[in-house]
Amino acid sequence: MTRSLIASLLASSSLLTGPALAGGFLWPSDSSGLHPTLPQAAQPETWAGSLTLPNGIALEFSVVLTPPTGTISIPLQGAIDVPLQDVVAEGETIRFVLAPPGASPDNFARFVFTRQSDTQATGHLTQGPMKLDVSMRRLEQGEAPPQAPRRPQDPIPPFPYEEVEVTFANPDDPTVVLAGTLTIPPGSGGMPVAVLVSGSGPQDRDENLLGHRPFFVLADHLTRNGIAVLRFDDRGVAKSTGNFESATTYDFASDALAAVQFLASHPRIDARRIGVIGHSEGGLIAPIVAARRPDLAFIVLMAAPGMSGLELMPRQAELVSLSAGIDPVEAKRQAENTRRICALIAHGGDTQEIKDTLREIIETELRNNPIHAALPADEFGQLVESQMMAQGPMLTSPWFKTFLLLDPRPYLAKVKCPVLTVTGSLDVQVAPGENLDALRGALAHADPRTRIVELPDLNHLFQTAITGSPAEYAVIEETLAPVFLDLVASWVREVTGAAGDLVPWRPVENGSAPAEGVQPASK
Residue 130 and residue 90: Cα distance in Å, rounded? Predict the structure, then answer.
C-alpha cells in the first residue's frame, strides 16, 4: 500500500517518506530471482520509454519485444530483463503486459501504443486505478538503453566489519518474524548499537527509495565509526513475515521494541548502549520505544514530526505544491482540502461520509482543470472513480487514522535518554520551522546532551537539494549528505563512548561540507 495521496486533492504529495514515489509502481522493490530465461524470436525490437509519475518523477524504462514475449527493464526500480506477457507488435499497434509478482490481474501494468513512425510511439499505461501517458523511441542497433542513475555513495565490499543476517520474532504477534542485517565493528567486548527504523510505507532494510539506499549508507558509515547497526525489513516486506497492510504505527513500534529486545541479549552487543534512529514516521516510533524502554542509551530523530498528522498534513500539502511550482493561492486551497478530509477522518467520520467528501473534492478539483472538465461524462466519471480507487483505501485505513491522531509530544516528554533531532532546512514533507518548535518544547527538560539541529540545504531525505521538492529525490546522485552522516556518527559516539575510529569510505565526487562547525539550534 502506498502511503501517498496522489490525485490533485493533495497535489500528489507523498506522506512522509512514502516509498512508492517510484518504488513499487509498475514493479515491487524486491524483484530478485524473478528473471527466468525467455525463448528468443527473430528480429527483436528494442525501445526506450519514459513516463511521468503523479508526483512529477520521471520513470525511464526499456523493452525488448520478441512477440509473443519480451522483457522490460526499469533501472530506477532495480528491475532488469523482467518477462513481459501478451506482447503484440503488429502494424501500428504495440502492446504488452507486466505482471508484478503477487499482483492480481487488476494491478498488472498494461501498455498500449500507436506507432507514430518507424522510431516513435505514443500511448498509455494502465495499472490499477492509474492511467498515464507514455512515449517510446526505438533504439538503433548498438544504442544503450536507459541506465540506473548513479548512486556513488553505495558502499562497496569488502567491508572492514562483520555482516550477519539475523531474524527475530515479535513476542506480541506470533505471525511477525523480522529479518535484517546486523553490522558489527571489529573489536572485542560489547558494542554500542543503533536500530534503524524506516519511514512510512513498506520499506526494506535499506529503506530503498528511487535507487537510493539511505539505511545501507548510514549503517556502513556508523559501523565504520565503531557503532554496530541493526536494520531490518518491515513486517510483510522482503524477508520479514506478517501483515503490513493492517498494521499501524503502534504495531511498527512493537517491531522496533522486538529489535531492541533481541539486541539486549546478543553476545556482541552492550545492552546498556542500545539506541534507536528513526526516519520520518520512524521518528514518531523512536520516542514511543524510548518511553517504553527508559534504559535506551539514545535516540536520533531524522526529519521527525513534532506534531500530530492532523496538524502536519495540510502544511505538507501546501509546501509540496509550492515546491512543484503551483500557484500559492492554489496551494492554499489544496491545503484546505487536505485539512478538511483529514479532520473528517480523525474526528470519527464513517467510511461512507469520508468517501462522499473525497468524491466531492475530487470532482471539484478535476472540474477546475479545463482538460478534465471537457471530457465526456462517462470518461469524466471513470477518471473520478480511478482517483477514488487510488486514495480511498489508504484514507480509510486504520494506519492513516492512527497517524492523524498520534501526537509525539507526550512520548517525547517521557524520554530519559539523550536525543539528537536533525532536520533539513529544505524539508517540504515535515516542515522544519513548526516541527522543530514543537520538538523543542517537548524536549525542554530532556537530557542535557540533547541537540536540535537544522542542517542548511538538505531535503527530507537529507540530500543536498535545490528546492526540496520530492521530484528532485531521484535525480540527486547523493544519498545522504556527509554533513549529516558525520553529525550523527560523532554525536552517537559521544553519548555511547564508541571505541572505533575507522576512516569512512567517501566518494571522491562528493564535495559537501564536513560536519565541523554545525551548531545545535537553541533548545
Answer: 26
Same domain, 317 and 299: no
Calpha distance 361→325 (Å, rounded)? 21
CA separation, residue 26 to residues 59, 250, 373, 425, 444 (Å): 10, 29, 28, 32, 46
Residues 233 and 373 in one domain: no
Show the CA angle centred on residue 176, arms to residues 172 and 177, nearest 5°.
115
Note whether 266 and 179 are same-domain residues: yes
Instruction: Give me the pLDDT at residue 25, please.
Output: 55
Q: In sequence order, what are the beta bridge partners of 168?
A: 178
Whether 113 and 194 map to the same domain: the answer is: no
CATH number at residue 125: 2.40.128
Instruction: Say yes or no: 447 and 429 in one domain.
Output: yes
Residue 117: name the closest of 142, 94, 85 by CA: 94
- pLDDT mean over 155-171: 97
The rounded distance, in Å, linking the Cα atoms of 281 and 301 is 10
Longest Cα–Cα distance of the chain, Å, equals: 73
Residue 460 has pLDDT above 80, yes or no: yes
What is the count of structural domains for the chain? 3
Q: What is d(CA 131, CA 275) in angstroms, rounded to the nearest whole number?
A: 44
Structural domain includes residue 412: no
Are 123 and 109 in contact, with CB atoms under 8 Å apart?
no
Query: Is 79 part of a structural domain of the chain?
Result: yes
Rounded to whole angstroms, how far apart are CA atoms 75 and 340?
38
Determine the average pLDDT of the residues in 85-108. 86
Strands (E), 342-437: 419-424
**Whether 361 contacts 339, CB under 8 Å:** no
Q: Domain of residue 255: give its range.
A: 162-307+417-496
Residues 19 and 96 occupy one common structural domain: yes
Buried-state track 444-454, b at ≥16 Cβ within 10 A, e below 16: eebeeebbbbb
Domain membership of residue 374 (yes or no) is yes
Lowest mean pLDDT, pick from 10-24, 216-230, 326-340: 10-24
Q: Is 294 helix (H, G, I), strand (E, B) or coil?
A: coil
Residues 40 and 112 in one domain: yes
What is the structure's pLDDT at 474? 85
Note whether 386 and 453 are same-domain residues. Answer: no
What is the value of pTM for the model shown?
0.81
Question: What is the phi-psi region of residue 109: left when phi exceeds 0, alpha when psi lies from -120 to 50, beta otherwise?
Answer: beta
Grid cell 516542515 — which residue? Answer: 431
| Three-state DSSP class for residue 514 | coil
Domain-terminating residue out of 403, 430, 448: 403
Q: Which residues of 9-27 are buried (b: 16+ CB within 10 A; e: fewer)?
A: bbbbbbbbbbbbbbbbbbb
323-328 long-range contacts, Cβ below 8 Å, gap at least 24? 323/428, 323/467, 323/468, 323/469, 323/470, 323/471, 324/11, 324/12, 324/56, 324/469, 324/471, 326/11
d(CA 231, CA 204): 9
Confirm whether 23 is domain-assigned.
yes
